[in-house]
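[job 0412] stage=fold_complex status=start
inputs:
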Amino acid sequence: MTEEAILAGCLQNNAPCQKELYNRYSPKMMAVCYRFGQNREDAEDMLQEGFIKVFTQIHTFRNQGALEGWIRRIIVHTCINHLKKNKKFKESVDLIHANALIVREESVPSIVQAKQIVECIRMLPMGYRTVLNLYAVEGYSHKEIGEMLDIEESTSRSQYTRAKQMLVDILVKKNILSKPQLQADMARVASGR
Amino acid sequence: MDRGFYNEDFDIEELIRFKSDQFNMRPSENVWKRISKKIHPVTPYLWVGFAVLLTGVGYFAATETSLLYEDAATLSHKISARTVVASSAKSTLLNRPSTTSDFVQGKELNNGISLTLTLPLTNRLTLETSSSLLKRQEVYAAFPVNTNTLTEIPVQPIQETNNEDQTYYPRVSVYAKPGQSLTQTGKIEPLLPLSIGLKSKEDKGMQGHEKLNWLQEYAAYELSLPKKRRVNWLVTLSPTMNYRRLVGGKTTELPSDVKNGPIALSLKGNVDALVNHQPARGLEMSSLFAYTMNRKWTFLTGVQFNYSRYDIKAFSAPANEKATISLSRYSGVQELTSYTVLRNFGGTAEKTLENEYYQVSLPVGMQYTLAEAGRWHLGLSGTIQPTYLLNKNNYLISTDYKNYTKEPTLVNPWNINTSAEAFIAYKYGNTRIQVGPQFRYQLFSSFAKEYPVKEYLMQYGFKVGISRTVH
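[job 0412] stage=fold_complex status=done
writing structure:
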């Protein structure tokens, strides 16, 4: 089924088309929610809420840009609103002294390196993690992050710097940065610039 | 610290982005089931509501239709709860089955019922009935033995009393003339009916033998009815007109930076004046049980289904715009942001938004009979209805009144409604039809208390109901 057909079906509130849209984009969006959430259950709640908004607001999609990008933006906003409502975020943004982070051996799975990176990101305090996800992964500017999280732009910049440093420390401690495949990836990314 | 290949030339951000995009994760199956239930919530409940209504209508239609075709014996028994009676008579000597000439006929008078029971005149008779309330008894024909004479006893109507608590026992008495031969002597030629009148109400305390004595051995048996049945099943249907009242926000003028398009509005005032909403039609169905406490008061409870709707005039924006909802919480003000192409003031084109509410309620209340005139009743009714909202996909206005968006988490699933109605009812037998206007109002806001704009739904309609005594 083409994306146009799926979109047309979803506009008609057609259940099979909605399920097809969900099946296509839910794995990637679940990964987005997993990076923001405390645990898998939290991530599934955010995913559910986000897709309900997608289906109820599908008529506002203006074909300006990819459908995936539009869905992703809704999911990210849903994640942020979910964190704000559950008051999980506010405490974490205020946490500026997170030096005593302990990395346990078993807390980072050694299966797939992408998952390893994601799990290391999830080990960060909630505030650091959110700013890192929004800036480095989702591509929002610090100004936009400040508006979304009700913080100053300068706070967003400083939080991001600390988050990045902490993540590097975790990756180094876990020897993830020294793994051969990751080294190859890093070289490929560097050569692509 | 071993940083491996990490150095200042390497951009960790690109690595994070690259690896994060590689990572996918399958959610559990339950997530889709929950999503599907939310976006397709109503159909089963709507069909359940229709099924309840059709079942009730079908039940009433079936029972009323069957009355036309049952034999007179059963027909008379069912005419009224107060009616006794012997359904047919036959000769035990001949084992003759009931014929159409053996019939019981009843009619309602102004203040009660008259009943005429006709029996073959000259035979030794057995009164039989299809009702389990009556016993088979032998009775004797009374009055003229001339088979060609039709004798009819004037019937006294059963009188209603003003004491609604008194139990009511109408009776049928069949009595014989002393000395009359009751043995069949020959062939039964055409049997002429003997009419037996239904006696008026008597003291319920009298025993059977006393009544026999009273008639000086004329009375053979007196039959009594059970107590008045108090439980009724009421099914109602009401087309409604629905609206809402908005409260909240301060008196404010049109925001200065609002974007005006080809179609624009200029409004001043509170939030109710800043939005353009219109009533729309809805529907209410209910299945209730009514317990008659006394002649004036009836207790009501049951299940009710409401479909309510109102329309909002909005405008399309040329591109997605940020809609902000500011929530007042104890910890301070929090903002929820989303993107929308719906504006409240001005835009490229007009757009009508429909806010629909599917509700299930458990009404509890009372009905009061204001006046009675024969079969006609005039009454009032009021109920309190704990209500559950089945859907949450309604449009909310942003707290700067510029845009419309959806935020299901701010919609309250539980609420309480109140209703008041007046009605005129017509009763025949066990069935009553009532019609009249009704008004329903929601006591608490549709939205969470953190959301500064409060919405109270209201509706008025014309209700039609059918009730039937069931116990």
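[job 0412] summary: The first helix of chain A runs from residue 3 to 11.
[job 0412] exit 0
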